[in-house]
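Researcher: Next sequence.
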Amino acid sequence: MSGTEEDSLLIAFPAAGSGGTTMEQLEKAAALRGMGFLALPNPPSDEAVESGNWQRDCLARVSGALQADGGGPTLLAGHCMGGFSALRLRDELTAHTGRPAPVLLLNTPCPNGQGRIPTMSALTDDEIAEILAHEGFPQDLLDDEDVREEIAGRLRAEAKVADGLVRWLHTGGTVPDVLHILSTRGDFFIPPRYCVTWHERVPGEVHLTVADGGHAIDAPLAGLLERCVDAALAPNPTEIA
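Model: Next structure:
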């Protein structure tokens, strides 16, 4: 364990599609630090965010977890689209708990000057299949036209929600004074060049760690992920060695 209080909580949001190995590694990192772990869903629709239903549901789940774990420090971590969910919920979470909530983004791209990010919402089935194949998705499933259409349609729908979250960020949504980011060179869809510009959005410090790896954070990156978690939780954040 790294000295983190035993009643602390790591709140994690997945990438579009599924949690996969990234969520598994975050849960392991939390366990090694004696932290509680809470996986929260990305919003299912723009309406769920605009109505506040998604935020209220997330905060209710957080309240239950904090009561169970003693209400200690929290860390918001989000993978790709999940990073935007973490940023969107941060202000509500700090107001709800009365505690600061540092944020760790994992392969989450920064919006450009027009408020746009790389997104699957405008991609064809074949273009989405190419990205999935690069990340090791079973080719036999991608070769099945019906399966490919179903998967691509679901990812496009989630990507449109991510687009909405980014619009909020571009039109006045706030980001933390200090932001931690882990980006991987082998991410076919969101390489580091899409993450480095977060320094233009953050009023204070940006701690960007770049490493080899694909879109998902897997076991070979577990040690580096843990150091990013420790740095984000530190009272005086420092660069990752």
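Model: Confidence is low (pLDDT under 50) at residues 237-241. The first helix runs from residue 20 to 32.
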